[in-house]
Structure formats: C-alpha cells, structure tokens
Design a protein that fits this description.
- With about 500 residues, the protein is mainly beta.
- Among the domains are: about 1-215, Ferric Hydroxamate Uptake Protein, Chain A, domain 1 (Beta Complex); about 355-400 and about 445-490, no CATH class.
- It is about 10% helix and about 45% strand.
- It contains 6 helices and 29 strands.
- The chain has helices spanning about 80-85, 90-95, 165, 350-365, 450-455, 460-465; strands at about 1-10, 15-25, 30, 40, 55-60, 65, 75-80, 100, 110, 125-130, 130, 150-160, 175-180, 190-200, 205-215, 220-230, 235-240, 245, 255-265, 270-285, 300-305, 310-325, 330-345, 385, 385-390, 400-420, 430-445, 475, 485.
- An 11-stranded antiparallel β-sheet has the order 1-2-14-15-16-19-20-22-23-26-27. Strands 4-3-7-12-13-10-11 form a 7-stranded mixed β-sheet. Strands 18-17-21 form a 3-stranded mixed β-sheet, with no helix packed on it.
- A hairpin with a 2-residue loop joins β1 and β2.
- The longest helix is centred in the last third of the chain and has 16 residues, at about 350-365.
- The protein is elongated and about 90 Å long.
- The protein starts with a strand and ends in a 7-residue tail after the last strand.
Length: about 500
Amino acid sequence: MRSTLSKAITAAVCRYLLFFGIVAGGGMALVSGAGATEANASDSGTPAASGALEEIVVTATRREESISKVPISITAINEDTIDKKGIKDFQDIVRFTPGVSIDTSGTNAISIRGISSSAGAGTTGIYIDDTPIQMRALGFNPDDTLPKTFDLDRVEILRGPQGTLFGSGSEGGTVRYIMAQPSVTTESDYARAEVSYTEKGQPSYEVGVAHGGPIVDDVLGFRASIWYRYDGGWINRVDDNTGATTEKNANYANTVAARFALLYQPAEGLKITPSVTFQDARKNDESTFWPAYSNVSDGVFNNATPERIPVPDLYYLPALKIVWDLGKTQLISNSSYYHRDELTGYQGTVYDLAYFQSQSWLIGSCGSASTTPVPPCSWYPLINSSGIHLPAGFQNEVTPNQMTNKQATWTQEIRWQSNDDSSAWKWTVGTFWSLSKETSIEELKDTQIIPFWTALFGIPPSAWFYLPPATAGNYYYCNGQGTPGQPIPNCDIY
C-alpha cells in the first residue's frame, strides 16, 4: 500500500477550494475506446515499464475479456485513476468520458451519445455489478441513484445500444459499477482520506477503509468496506422578509456507504458470492441561491426560499452470485433485491406565489390584503426579481413541496455461456426475470391556503376552483380554517 499527498487550489463559483488529499490504494489505468489502453502502474502498485501498455480486463460482454478484444466502444476507469483524479461520483466521471453527459438539475439522468428521455424507461442502464438499479421516469422529479466511488474495482461506460445483454432501458448505453471482490488467496487493504476547505463556507472531509482476504485458504474469503464523507455547505438560508441569516452553510451533505461480501468455493470451479451493499446520502438543503439576497462578487451566497429542501436518499442491495465452471462452459446465476427510499422536492413557495399572483387578473377582485378593490391589487407582486413581498399578517406563508420516491426490485438472471478462449465461437444464452415496483408521490402543502387566498382575492379558494360541494357555505377546510364541510387531507393543495 502506498500513499500520495497532493495540494491544489481551484476556483469554483467565485470561491476558493483548498484541496488536501491522502490516498492509499492499488494500481492505476485509464482506458478510453475499444482496443486502447494506457497504464501508469501495474495492479501491484509498482511502476509499469516505460511505454508499456497494460491490458485491462472488463466484463462488458458479460464475460471476462481484454478490453482490446471487446467489439464495442467502452471507457473503463479503475480505482487508482478515480483516486488520482479526485472522482467522487458520476458527475466527475463525465468530465473524462467523451459522448456522455448528465442532467445535474436534479434527476441525475445520464445521456450517452445524445440519447435521453424524460418519460418511461430510462435510456441508460445503470448497474451495480450485475444488478440494474435505474428508475423509470415517474412523476415530476425521480432521481437515478448513482453510487459513490469507494472500493470499486472499476467503472465501465458502454456506449451504444446494449439491449441484448443488458435489457430494456439501455438504448444509449450502460454504466456499470464493478465493486472490489473478495479473495480466498490474497489479503488486500485500501484506505482513502481527504480534507478540504471552502472559503466563506465549511470544511469538507472523507475517510474510508476496506480490507479483504482469506478466512479459510482457498475455500472462504471476504471483503468489507466502510466510507463516510461530509461536504461542507457554502449557501446560507436567510429570512425572505428581513434578510437575516437563519442557518449558515445550510447546503451541507453527508454520505455513508458500506459493503460486505463473502466468497465461498466449496468445490473446484464453483464460486458462491453473497454480498450486501448499503448507501445513505443526505443533503440538508438544495444548493441553490438567490441573487437578490446574495453578494456574489464578495462570495456571499444566500437562499431565501421559506422552506428547507432536504434530500435523504437511502438504498440497500443484497445479492447472491453463483458461478459454476463446467470446463468449456460456465453456468452463472445472479439473484438480488434492490430497495431505495428517496425524498426530494423543489421550491414550492416560489412556484405557488408566482401562480397566485397570476390569478389576480382572472379573478378580478382583491381581498382584505389590498387597499384597492380590483386589480391591480396593492399587494401585487408577491414575488419578482427583487425577492418575496408578502402582505402583512402572512409573512410566514410557506408551501413546502416534497416528492417521495420508492423503488423495490427483485431480479434473477441465469446465463449459460462458452468458456473456451481458444474457440473462434463465443455464445451466451440465458433468461432474465424482474419484478419491480416504483412509486412517486408529489405533494404541495399549504396550511394557510384558505385565509391567504381569501385575503388576496376576497373569495375562498374552493369557490374559485369549484371544489364540490361549493354551495351553501359547505366549503373545503384545512388546519381548522374555513367553513366545515369537506376536508383537504393534510392541507395538500396538490
């Protein structure tokens, strides 16, 4: 095991980041394109011979092959390259991968060769080892899960349609996270640590350790890893009325990732590998700021949206892989269950205030919050480029939005394939079964919707939207407000 120490100063969003990293791990190789390899060190960590090319073994065709023999366009980035380039997730990988982009606005949707879709099945397959984890585009804002890059053997990016071997949702290509595997013969260690500081923000740091080796020589081995990262915040939350800071550096995030795997070889040619992968990523608030409340030239970034938008995202993945070597053929079984719970959202208050003020010209009347009886109401606008302007008595008006995304997928794959490297023919036959359930529920909650709407327009919202029954004073109500009649559950206005 070796360690490297690096320092770099970079500028990002008018702020300075001092990066200090300690990396300990194995060899490094970056591969781009079929048949092209570039190596800086061998797998053992010793320098490669000057000018020598090192073959990289990938599983893009569902069998172990040298990348120079794989007849597709592929980029493979191994663990040492990930460490040396400071890659933390797929957003960083994109910078080193031609023909690949990612939607950073919230969905994490990966586009390969320009192929993407905002509805239905995804166009890029996403795999952890042999388990597909991508989501269908349900509702407004489902985010694809992108694992963090700790204790990976490599990441493979396959460009072009991969439907034959990787199924539906791989029209543009496939991204595969290949985890470090247990061994029954060799012990290995890996550790990574980093500390950084954001000017006018918080420190960031990470630490992770992995260890593997035989428990019973040639029979039973294991691999275990755990990793934690804290990303310091640099955007403050402020009161939209007074501009006073309510929470400094609110957009911090932290992530825990862990994995445990066993390798059991009860007989010659038979390998059984059970594993459990876990990741819990939590953002305290989204990284958006409002120019009207910020001083960008001085490096001060503030967010004035009245509601905080946390994004907890947790998944776990137990899996069982069985490989039976039958000589010139192999029988492979992959069984897994993928479970994910994510909560996300957008700035619902901003969305609703813009909508509310647009209705004043249609309704044609003003309520008690206005000194004028008809539009333009004196409270207009509620929101514009200079910020939020709420009428007296409603400075705490808030419409938090949240979207609950859940995913539960059982998969079973069985493949029988050739295993004779000397043969000119290579074949694979198999069957794949999947049972997947996904839900996406979007909610906008407004506990003050009835008095607020009435104060703006002089009529209750149920009268304007014709919510039945809206006659004889039998209107909708929530939060103990409004005329008793039909309740709005949880004050969900959407």
